[in-house]
Amino acid sequence: MSVSLSFFAKYDDVVNALEKMEFDFNNVTDDSLEEIGQETTKKMKAEAPVGTGKLKSEIDYKLEKSGSSRKVTIKSSAENADGEEYAFYVEKGRPAGKAPPISSIIAWASAKGLSTAVAQKIAMNIKMGNSNANRPNPFVERTFKEIVGSVEDIFNKGLKKLVKDF
C-alpha cells in the first residue's frame, strides 16, 4: 500500500475561465473608464473659468476602444472665432504679440456687460501683454491633481469586483 497525492488540471476549464476573465476584465475596464470620464468631466467643469460659459459647457469625455486598448479623453471643444480650440490659451496663457480674435473678446465683454470699445482696448492690451488675460489659468492641471487619487480608487473598485466575481 502507498499514500500519495495527485494534482491535475483540466486545461479546457482553465482556458474557458481565462477567456471569461478577459471578457469581464474588458467590461470592468470600460466601466471604470466611463466613471473616470464622468467624474473628471464634472471636476473639470467645476475648475473651468467662466467668461461666456462656452469653455465650461463644451467640456466632455470620449471613450475610445480599439481591440484590447481603451482610452478616455476629457477636453473642451470650445473654439474661438478663428476656429482654434481656446482651452489651451486659458490653461497656458497667451503670449504677448498675438491678439485673440476680436469677435471672441467682444462676445466675452458682452457677457460681462462691457462695451465693444472696452473689448477692443482689452484685445490690444492682450496683444501688448498688459492684461490678466495673458496669464495662465491651469484648470486642467488642477483637475488632474484633484482626480488622480480617484482614478486609482475607481480601478481598484473594478478589479475587486472582477476578482470577487471570478
Please give a handful of descriptors for the protein shown.
2 strands, 2 domains, 58% helix, single chain, 166 residues, mainly alpha
Shape: elongated
User: Helix coverage percent of residues?
Assistant: 55-70%
Q: Please, what is the average pLDDT?
A: 80
β-strand percent reads 5-15%
Low-confidence stretches: none
Structural account:
By secondary structure, the protein is mainly alpha-helical. It has 6 helices and 2 strands. It has a two-stranded antiparallel sheet with strand order 1-2. A hairpin with a 2-residue loop joins strand 1 and strand 2. Helix 1 (11-47) runs antiparallel to helix 6. The model has no long low-confidence stretch (mean pLDDT 80).
Any chance you could write out the topology, listing elements then pairs?
Layout: H1 11-47, H2 54-57, E1 59-66, E2 69-76, H3 87-92, H4 102-111, H5 116-128, H6 139-165
Antiparallel strand pairs: 1-2
